[in-house]
Design the sequence.
């Protein structure tokens, strides 16, 4: 037992006492805590007094009405907002579906929106994306990006060529016999798949005749890039930003291939007008001349042709070649010696020629 001071009268009393025997001040019962010190009791008592003295505010009926009105206005505003913005939110959701290539769901929502914004136009876009034409364009885009993403580390050149071609064939071959609404696009699709198959076939020569493989592969590559360029430009085919540099390189190669194809066509048109003549001397020795004119826009570092002599039915009856000309400029004419292996030159009705040349970076 210990003696403590009564917090009320200050006299010493037992800490076991329930109340002060002098003034009746409660020691334990008031706080309900047996070990509470007088100082703690005083703090608690002051806090209780403050709480008891604090007046309780009551909400008036008028304020209750005002608060209720405000809450009602807020609820009505939210409802109106949801109604007014319903089409906008649905339109944004449809656009997200379209961007994520969920075309069927996007189509349903755009149809429900009717004439809202460009919903009618988006319905057409969704329907096109779901058509064979749209699916081919999207698959071509994805197949090219997949090809460009293939890792090359640790692979041989042959393996790289084979893997690159195979991944496109795997994704595109199913469109070969598909029915397209756009006949031109359908023809482009078949041409492109044919080129991929030709590229795969050319790999058979990689180890046995590399020169033949290299010539064929590059020729196919040139045709493939030109076809990609046509599709990109005519059908507005787009690619993710990270592939733009690769695409730009292909389009540049395509422009070079187009220039080379134009040159070949111009040369073919030119040599179709070459004239082979012959003279026979008194000893029955026949000499041949080939008259030529450079009707192209190109200057040739060197130029010569192989000759096929044809009879009236167009059959090849003899072969030969002509002398080479150098630094042959546009508009310049030339007459060169030619040699044809035939006993009766009068049988020759016409000729066909195969050109060999170099002009700048292009040669054949």
Sequence:
């Amino acid at each position: 037992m210990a003696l403590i001071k009564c917090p009320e009268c200050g006299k010493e009393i037992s800490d076991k006492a329930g109340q002060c025997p002098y003034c009746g001040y409660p020691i334990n019962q008031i706080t309900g805590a047996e070990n509470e010190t007088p100082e703690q009791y005083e703090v608690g008592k002051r806090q209780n007094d403050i709480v008891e003295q604090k007046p309780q505010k009551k909400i008036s009926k008028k304020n209750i009405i005002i608060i209720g009105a405000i809450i009602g206005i807020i609820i009505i505003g939210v409802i109106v907002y949801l109604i007014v913005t319903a089409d906008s939110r649905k339109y944004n959701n449809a656009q997200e579906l379209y961007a994520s290539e969920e075309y069927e769901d996007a189509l349903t929502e755009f149809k429900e929106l009717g004439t809202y914004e460009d919903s009618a136009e988006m319905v057409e876009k969704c329907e096109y994306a779901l058509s064979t034409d749209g699916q081919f364009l999207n698959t071509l885009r994805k197949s090219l990006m997949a090809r460009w993403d293939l890792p090359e580390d640790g692979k041989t050149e042959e393996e790289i060529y084979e893997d690159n071609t195979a991944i496109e064939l795997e994704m595109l071959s199913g469109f070969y016999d598909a029915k397209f609404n756009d006949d031109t696009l359908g023809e482009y699709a078949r041409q492109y798949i044919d080129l991929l198959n030709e590229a795969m076939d050319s790999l058979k020569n990689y180890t046995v005749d590399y020169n033949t493989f290299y010539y064929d592969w590059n020729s196919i590559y040139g045709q493939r890039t030109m076809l990609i360029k046509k599709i990109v430009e005519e059908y507005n085919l787009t690619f993710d930003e990270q592939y733009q540099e690769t695409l730009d390189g292909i389009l540049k190669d395509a422009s070079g291939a187009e220039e080379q194809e134009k040159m070949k066509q111009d040369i073919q048109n030119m040599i179709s007008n070459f004239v082979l003549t012959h003279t026979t001397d008194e000893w029955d020795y026949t000499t041949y001349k080939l008259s030529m004119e450079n009707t192209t826009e190109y200057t040739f570092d060197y130029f010569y042709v192989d000759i096929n002599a044809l009879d009236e039915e167009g059959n090849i009856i003899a072969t030969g070649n002509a002398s080479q000309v150098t630094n042959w400029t546009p508009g310049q004419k030339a007459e060169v010696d030619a040699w044809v292996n035939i006993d009766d030159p009068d049988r020759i009705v016409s000729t066909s020629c195969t050109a060999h040349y170099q002009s700048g970076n292009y040669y054949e």
Observations:
- The chain has ten helices and ten strands.
- The longest strand covers residues 300-310.
